[in-house]
Design a protein that fits this description.
single chain, about 60% helix, two-stranded antiparallel sheet, 5 domains
Length: about 1200
Amino acid sequence: MAAAVTELELERRVMAAVKASAERGDPPLLQAAEAARCIREAPASAPGGLALSQALVTNLCFAHNTAAMWKLLDQAMLSRLVDPLHTLALLTPRVVPNRREQPEAYRLYLELLGRYAVAPVYPERMEKDMLAKSIDSAMQLSHRFGFQHLDFGHTVILFVLSLVNMLIDCILDDCGLPITSADEHGNRNDMNFNGKGRSLDRGDEHREHLRRKNILMSIEVVEKDRPENFNCLLRKLHLIGAVKNKNTLSPYNLLDSLIMNIQNVISTDYQLDRKRLLEVPVSIQPCSSAVYSIFRAGKGSCWIPFDMFMENAMDGRHLHAISSVEYLTELSKTLQVLNRATWQETFQALWISALRLVQRGPDASEGPFPRLDSRLCMLLAIIPLSIATIVKEEVGNLEGDTTSVIRGQLVSSLQILRQFFGLLSPPPAAVHLANTAARKAAVVLSNLKNGSENMCSSFKDSPSTKAVGNMLHLIVEACITRNLIDTSAYFWPGYVVPLKESSPVQESPWPSLVEGSPLIELKDALMVTPASSVPELEKLYSFAVSGSPEEKLAASKILCGASLLRGWNIQEHVVQMVLKLLSTFLPLDSGPEGRYVQDMPMLHTLVSGISSIDTVHILSMYGLVPEVASMLMPLCEFFGSLPPSDHRSCKFEEASVYSVFSCAFLSLLRFWKFHRRPIENALSRRGVSVWSELHLDFLLLLRNSHSSLKNLSNVTQSSIFKLDTPFQKPMYIDSFPKLRAWYFQNQACIASTLSSACSRTTVLHVANMILKIICHNKVPKGGVLSVNLQSTENSGTSSSPSGVQEDMCQWPTLPAWEILEAVPFVLEAMLTSCAHGRLSSRDLVTGLRDLADFLPASLAAIVSYLSAEVTRGIWKPVMLNGVDWPSPAATLPVVESEIKEVLAFAGVHINICPRPRSVMPMLPLPIAALMSLSITVKMEEFSHLQGIIGQGIEICTTSSSWPAAQIIGALWSQNFVCEEILEVVIERAHAIANACSSDRPARLRADSITCSNDACHAGGVNLIRLLYEQIIPTLLLSGGEAKLGSAGQVCSIIEGYTLAYVLLFSGASIWGVGETSPAYTSIYTSKRQRVVDRHLEFMARVMEGNIVLGCGDATWRSYVLCFVNLLVNFVPTWIPEVKLKTLQKLASGLQRWHEGDLALSLLERGGTKTVTSVVESLLQ
């Protein structure tokens, strides 16, 4: 009661002071000052400004409702004697309900509202909480919106929202529309807009006219406040539009302007005004407006990342640990945002890039490179799966009838492909499949024309129907199978082209299998004909699981045949069945050995089936490298520990202990890049980051992380492999002691010579046994090569080891792991003897081939050892004379000429001096031996050996020029490549700056996308991290004559823009532009937060003056403004991941540059943590 008396007494004193000042003739400002003095002298609990506004508003409403009091309140708000927001919060619940009884007061309230609702306020930091609490209490914000506590920023936002919402409700009610408002929790309460509900005097024409004008003024106030984030207001505004024909609203267009403002912000096309941004060419317009024009000169470069990704995926030297479906999905979303393109244009670019990939297929089949099947997999399986993921996400984000928009754009992208007839010509191997797809559509049309009830009847019912097909028919069928489009595509004009010929149609054997025909009779036909539906696969899988031994083996071979390679429409299901079947035979427990030996034929079929070049890369494109590698490890561990049943050499086509082990082991090594360069081992142990391939431990960690993700989320959307319960447990290398032992021995052999390696005597005995066999009758004077039992430092001729018969010429029946452990010592003895002339080159290569024939898995040890020896530089070169060693003389000039042309095209000009005929080409002995071995191995017979030998030769090539070559190569892959790219970028920036052309922004963006994509493919995520954290900051900090910003004003500005484009686009290409899948996040996106935050912190510190730049001011300013602009417009999802303090410092720097709009836009996208900063920025 005492507090209430105090408030009443305070209000009385204030009014007394105001009246006394008015009687003295003081102006309103002095009257307000007298009232403030009165408040300061009174022992009030609230701050003076809050208490004064409370006293003035209480007297004004409505005991002293005079024009003088309103003028006094205006002066008090203008001079900040009272806080404007708090004063409006006190006025609103008093004036608005009485607006009809007090139209004059409502009119004056609206004027104050329009003047001060968004006016700057400068509360002290200690007063912000009290001000927020007072506004909340006056407007009941916490109760209305369901919050327990509101900070200053949220209080201001909810206050403005309440004001706008209340004014619109008043407008609707005053226009005669009964409105029932709902609070944030859905509780509906009839608002009392008529005060106490008393009837109004309509006879007073002046006041009625004032009421109508108040409606218009309310709209003006709402339009001025620009409620840019209030979706719910549109419905009410459209109701106001329903009464526009009334005289009160017809003369004004403010309503239309208000609705347009809200709709612009809601739409994704809304952008802040950037005209003041130094005329910055930040092109936020679509990369192309006409569909066909996206592949004209200068336009197609916007989509080059698609081509580069697909070509990189076809590179046999690289296997990816993440699904190409996920990567391509993120890349498509990124380019769609960066290019400001429609989904139709994005899908069209995808299809055309993949069609070009198919047409670029290699003519020859040499080398470890995927061929046509992998390229068709990209076009007909990976891309449709990526599009399906995008369509599902987009449909989930759309509402109502707009869900068909993206599907319509997909259909349009397919229809336009008919214009690219040159790309639609099918390769010879796919002609039959394309004709089959076209015939399917022809059968549907024929049945419809003949009135058949079943339009999609079997081909057997229409034996005479034929059609000519192309790649479009295969693409359409892939989309129909995955429910992306429907069969209405069959009715497109010109889609079906009848074929008139008398040759019989080759029917698919799969319907016969489903109908009950014996599997064995159809085996050969099923192996070369891909399945067309999941039920057909399920029928086959039932034979593989519960059939007879003969049927199980046949079903395994069929699964790994044409259905795996060319069953694109259902390929993900085939892959899942193959791996699921393989997982059922894994020796994961301590079961009897006889069981696994009994299943050896099926294991041999399955492992051999997934070992081909194309199959390995198909599994890689599906992101199954970690899972398949973890399946091969227990097979290697188990079968590598079993002795063979006889002394014969291994034959891959026959199931045996050695053949199963060799297939599994060599396939595992293709997934795990075991032949790591010695320099990479050395540098990585010293903390130097070098670009390296997947290694064994990393594969297991990836597999375990994938397993945990799938268990948590019940298999991610893009995953096609569902783990069985026994296979869900984590796996570690310690679970495979034999594999682990060879793993460390291989690392030791790479890191140092064998003389420093400790080995057991039994290993040396095995090595001598192998030497005796492969070098029998090849060493002159009856000597026998052997490894010295006392020291492994030297080798020569000596007697056979103890316990070995002199006439023993049969291969030992030892487990594969024991053979592999002895191979390095065998190789050292053979190379040393060859170098000293005791063993001829021909006998050396023949011996290596015999060893590889006996145990094909030994090829891995051969490649690893010879590659490591090349890098040591201790072996003398040998002459490639065509007698002892193969001669390259016939093709060497052509190869050198091609290298020179390729380098010249890239801007690198070298002078290759012609070699005199008397000078013989030479190579170090280890690489000469490896090259000769690769020539003797028939790649067609051992296709899975190509990856092992080919990559070993690549390492030898890059390591044999001079001792420092491998060091330069490792560093070049990280930093020299990036500097070359940046040099090209800056040169292109200067060219653009000097060109008087209107398409500067488009050219700048296109060049930047290309260069950023080059950087991504040159070094991947590690290079992008260095680009953000080291390379670009160093470039900006560097001075000297060649520093950035020294080429003139225009060139300096364009330099900054270009660097910003390249940096942001390269990051977006790797990390994505929005939320990514868990698997993609674990590999790529998880690194984004730290890297981006560090770079923005670098920017903020420079803007604060804590770091001195070396580049010109124009370059730095344009770089910062362009990068932040791109960050805001293209990748706003990155901003909430940045620390609040970093964003605040960067925004403060932008405001000092008079770039308040850009600073505000940056803070607005910072999430909930930046709300208060946004409000403070608006009110300053």
